[in-house]
Design brief:
The structure is a single chain. By secondary structure, this protein is of the alpha/beta class. Helix content is about 35%, strand content about 15%. It has 11 helices and 11 strands. The termini are far apart. The mean pLDDT is about 90.
Length: about 280
């Protein structure tokens, strides 16, 4: 999807204006293999999308919103309705980046036909450009089915959070030769099936590098390799909103401390009756 928008920040809405900014497209991202690194962050709300949009090539409405927004213990509990609501908000709040939306667990695995029905609904109801699904060779027929029917697919291999119950945890994958070989085969399979990009999560660095060299589509790493064609982080991790910091995360701020300090200052001002002042009241 290529839509032309500029952003009216005073109303938090996107409106067509005489001097438009054109959205990046899925083919433009696919052509970035081996070129300028691709910048991707998650976004779950319109306002966050506004703030991230000019800096990012891709905005991912990840099912990580289950943990980040809803306080769930895994992404397995995320519903399609959650993804659509947040995906539509991110599309409304952005105007430049390609918006990709995760298909939640249970909404696409049964068959390519189920995946198409789900993905078509997601794109229709949100205006996003692409969907993302987890899984390797077993999902290659689904990737091919969707791609052949005009639905761009970002694939996801390595540590796949929706399969956490089968994997037994969130540890790095590919430590054994057998597991590394399987993940590499998975990457090749979904790339050959037509994925326009491939998220590689939580794998040992040599494997991340090998996958990047082996596939024709851009790879986007998260705990993978500096040699990936791009990188992605959960925005709340990047901003320092949580005390726990996964190994693959770099905190570029400490927003949790800043919010805590601001809330403390507000509470103290209210209790001391220093807020509101005359400036905040209507005469």
């Amino acid at each position: 999807m290529s839509t032309t928008f500029t952003l009216d920040t005073s109303t938090s809405r996107a409106h067509p204006l005489p001097e438009p900014v054109r959205r990046l497209t899925v083919p433009a991202i696919a052509r970035r293999k081996g070129g300028e690194p691709i910048v991707m962050l998650t976004a779950y709300t319109a306002r966050m999308a506004q703030l991230l949009d000019k800096h990012c090539d891709l905005l991912l409405v990840g099912d990580s919103l289950g943990q980040v927004i809803y306080g769930l213990d895994t992404t397995v509990k995320v519903t399609l309705e959650m993804m659509i609501a947040h995906g539509a908000a991110v599309v409304r709040g952005s105007y430049r980046a390609v918006v990709v939306i995760d298909l939640p667990f249970g909404s696409y695995e049964a068959s390519p036909e189920q995946a198409f029905e789900t993905a078509a609904r997601v794109l229709k109801e949100t205006g996003a450009a692409a969907v993302k699904l987890e899984g390797g060779a077993v999902m290659a027929p689904t990737v091919s089915f969707l791609s052949a029917r005009g639905i761009p697919v970002m694939a996801h291999v390595g540590l796949t959070p929706q399969a956490v119950n089968a994997l037994g945890g969130y540890g790095a994958r590919g430590r054994s030769e057998a597991e590394a070989a399987k993940i590499l085969d998975d990457a090749r399979a979904v790339a050959a099936a037509g994925a326009f990009a491939l998220v590689v999560e939580g794998v040992v660095e040599p494997l991340g590098r090998a996958i990047t060299e082996a596939v024709a589509c851009p790879t986007i790493g998260i705990g993978a390799s500096t040699q990936c064609d791009g990188q992605v982080l959960v925005v709340d991790d990047m901003l320092g909103m949580f005390e726990r910091v996964p190994r693959f995360v770099e905190r570029f701020d400490n927003m949790a401390e800043r919010i805590d300090a601001a809330a403390a200052a507000y509470a103290e001002a209210v209790r001391a009756r220093r807020f509101p002042t005359e400036k905040q009241l209507y005469s």
